[in-house]
């Protein structure tokens, strides 16, 4: 029984880690995309219009990308049923990525409005509490700590490798520049000798 428990525990830790990393990646990507898109006047106006919506309008806009992209997810299932695995995965990943980014952008823009809807505020608080609980549980798990220590060690080794490569690259560039100067000098002497 302990073996099953350890296997299940390890599997859940891996799954939770992937979900948390995906969540953090998506939010970081949303921030970058929002900053980039914020330069466009049309999107600044769209954000301003979203912020003026009433709570139920903001919720409708938040749910719209999910509903609009639903046919694309159904198409992914059709591809899967036809045995076209790559097409199905590509279709599903694009739908999830686009839907997730748009929903995250709308949520970020309308969060304060959405939280005025009592059931949405309650659901959001429960989701945040569950996420925080999962983060805390994961951070204190031995497998997570071991993975974190391994990643830190790898980062240290990569930094040392980059530093060594940087020093070697610098030395190589210095030697290369010296060799080019020597070639130029020889070329000039050869050119002057021909005249």
Q: How would you describe this protein?
A:
With 195 residues, this protein is mainly α. It folds into 2 domains: 2-127, no CATH class; 141-195. The chain has 7 helices and no strands. The chain has helices at residues 2-37, 41-51, 55-68, 70-81, 85-114, 118-139, 142-194. It starts with a helix and ends with a helix.
Helix content: over 70%
Domain unit count: 2
Extract low-pLDDT stretches.
none
**Total count of helical runs of at least 4 residues:** 7
**Percentage of residues in DSSP E strands:** under 5%
Q: What's the story with the biggest beta sheet? A: none
Average of pLDDT? 79
- The rounded Rg comes to 27 Å
How far from one another are the termini? 92 Å
Structural class: mainly alpha
Order of helices and strands: HHHHHHH
- Report the strand count: 0
Task: State the shape.
Answer: extended
Annotate the secondary structure layout:
Layout: H1 2-37, H2 41-51, H3 55-68, H4 70-81, H5 85-114, H6 118-139, H7 142-194
Helix pairs in contact: 1-5, 1-6, 3-5, 4-5
Descriptors:
mainly alpha; 2 domains; 0% strand; extended
């Amino acid at each position: 029984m302990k073996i099953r428990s350890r296997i299940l525990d390890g599997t859940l830790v891996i799954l939770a880690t992937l979900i948390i990393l995906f969540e953090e990646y998506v939010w970081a990507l949303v921030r970058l995309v929002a900053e980039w898109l914020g330069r466009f006047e049309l999107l600044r106006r769209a954000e301003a219009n979203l912020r003026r919506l009433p709570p139920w309008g903001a919720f409708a806009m938040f749910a719209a990308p999910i509903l609009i992209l639903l046919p694309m997810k159904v198409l992914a299932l059709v591809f899967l049923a036809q045995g076209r695995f790559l097409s199905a995965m590509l279709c599903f990943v694009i739908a999830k990525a686009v839907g997730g980014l748009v929903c995250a952008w709308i949520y970020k823009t309308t969060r304060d409005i959405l939280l005025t809807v009592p059931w949405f505020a309650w659901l959001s608080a429960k989701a945040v509490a569950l996420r925080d609980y999962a983060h805390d549980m994961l951070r204190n798990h031995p497998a997570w700590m071991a993975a974190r220590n391994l990643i830190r060690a790898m980062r240290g080794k990569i930094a040392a490798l980059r530093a060594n490569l940087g020093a070697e690259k610098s030395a190589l560039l210095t030697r290369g520049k010296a060799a080019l100067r020597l070639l130029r000098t020889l070329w000039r002497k050869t050119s002057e000798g021909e005249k």
